[in-house]
Amino acid sequence: MSDATIEDEAPPRRGYAKGRAKREEILQAAIVTFAEVGYHGASLREIAARVGISHPGLLHHFPTKAALLEAVLEHRDAVDFADVDTDLAQGRSLFEAIVRLVERNALRRPVVEVFAGLAAEATSVEHPAHDFFAARYRDTVSRMRTELARLDGAGRLRPGVDAAVAARTLVALMDGLQVQWLYSLELPRADRVDMAADLRAYLGLILVDPDAG
Known about the structure:
Blueprint: H1 3-41, H2 44-51, H3 55-61, H4 65-89, H5 94-105, H6 109-121, H7 130-153, H8 163-184, H9 195-206
Pfam family, one: TetR_N
Organism: Krasilnikoviella flava
Protein name: Transcriptional regulator, TetR family
């Protein structure tokens, strides 16, 4: 390949990287905006202004607010799934990986705010994120139930604990802790909700040796 050809190809690659960086900026601005005012209260013009681009410039990346919302949710899940997969690859149990994810989320307040707010908003079947959250809850509960059933077969579930009930309760606990944690942030640090500690405590109630693989 000639030097001229290499030089000709360089600008598109740089342009692609710049476009990806701008897309990431838009996603982060959208997370903050959705967290502050919810999906219905947010405007693409406001999000564009946060990033320092024009409204048409934002539409080049995300043609509709629904498309931007979908990208935000997919981005959040991609980050979370990557973190959990890394922990699993390092030999940690699924539930220890989830506890570690909760610990990391305590450092991502806007992400927790947007998820908690949108999950409540999206109960309406007309909300653009309704199908996303409905499928997400089904998949999450199913994965928890499968893992708890496996642990039950290995004698690791405490007597009287039903895997299906525990799976639903675990997901509900995680969501509820996020909301309580957000409210507790206005309190002195010693009085704030420790999501990871409370989750570990619940796992200790239903599992024998909850930290084991």
